UniProtKB/TrEMBL annotation:
SUPFAM superfamilies: Aldolase. The active site is at Y136, K165. Pyruvate binds at I210. It holds the Pfam family DHDPS. This is Dihydrodipicolinate synthase family protein. Keywords: Lyase, Schiff base. It comes from the Bacteria. Belongs to the DapA family. It comes from Pantoea rwandensis. GO terms for molecular function: lyase activity.
């Protein structure tokens, strides 16, 4: 029997709450995780893009890894991406010490990378991470693409490399990743990084989605996966259309990270809407648009 992917389904890349003094708010994170833990989703991703990892100090990231694991029984993955490999290794070691199920890593960013460089980088990193890891493909932020051929080559060679988050607004790229990796590994997870690609990802044989909207409507995505497994086409159609409508939230305001956090704060009153991204505050009219969208 072919091995199945270890980590699949519906993931939430959690926001990172800050208090009014711009410090980590672990109590608010606990309230957020408590709600997510009962929503039906499968996995929490700590310090992803929506989690503002790039604005956190190394000590803040270590603190989050230590304290967040105690806040939810769900499967948990920590993004340890950095431009400094010793920092990444330190974060990964903290993740293993605190019982994380895997870590996630971006390719090098700022400097452009060739496919040859990316292969060399990930092979070297694999030897140092000390456990299971996901790659994070986000060409709009890194300036380089993890191509299906490259990912399949790495998957064939590195058994600890167990999956990828593909944040690329291109269905054919997601599909090609699924097809190419299935040729070499039956236990490899390809997850879409775009919310509305959950159903196309599953139809192509993928593993699920890592969706920012799960901070707000995790039950909707959990329900979609249940409908998929039950082959309830009419229900799936309705949910897909609702997800498509909700995608409009990413067009409100200048900064989608701040917008998602504001939406969480307004809908659940569980955390401050403070973000470390500058200039992303919403006007009253924009806040009202968020409220109308979420119903």
């Amino acid at each position: 029997m072919a091995a199945q992917p270890l980590l699949t389904g519906i993931w939430c890349p959690s926001v990172t709450p800050f208090d009014q003094n711009n410090r980590l708010d672990i109590d608010a994170l606990g309230r957020h995780f408590a709600r997510l833990s009962t929503s039906g989703i499968d996995t929490l991703l700590l310090m992803g893009s929506i989690g503002e990892f790039a604005s956190l100090t190394q000590q803040e990231r270590l603190q989050l890894i230590r304290e967040a694991r105690q806040l939810s029984p769900l499967t948990m993955v920590a993004n340890v991406s950095s431009t400094c490999i010793p920092d990444m290794v330190q974060l990964a070691e903290a993740a293993w010490q605190n019982g994380y199920d895997a870590v996630m890593v971006l390719p090098p960013y700022y400097y452009g990378q060739t496919q040859k460089q990316l292969l060399s980088y990930f092979k070297a990193l694999d030897k140092q991470l000390g456990g299971k890891w996901f790659a994070y493909n986000f060409p709009a932020r890194t300036g380089c693409d993890l191509t299906p051929a490259l990912v399949a080559e790495l998957a064939a060679e590195l058994p600890q490399f167990i999956g990828i988050k593909d944040t690329m607004d291109c269905l054919s790229h997601n599909r090609a990743l699924i097809e190419e990796t299935k040729k070499v590994r039956s236990d490899f997870s390809v997850l879409s990084g775009y919310d509305e690609y959950l159903l196309p990802n599953l139809l192509a044989g993928g593993a699920g989605v890592i969706s920012g909207l799960n901070n707000i409507v995790p039950e909707l995505f959990a329900e979609a996966l249940q409908a998929w497994r039950a082959r309830e086409l009419e229900k799936l159609t309705q949910i897909q259309q609702r997800i498509g409508q909700l995608m409009a939230i990413y067009t409100i305001g200048d900064d989608f990270v701040t917008t998602i956090k504001i939406a969480v704060a307004r809908k659940f009153n569980s955390m401050s809407n403070h973000s470390r991204n500058f200039g992303g505050e919403l006007s009253m009219e924009q806040c009202e648009a968020v409220d109308r969208l979420l119903g």
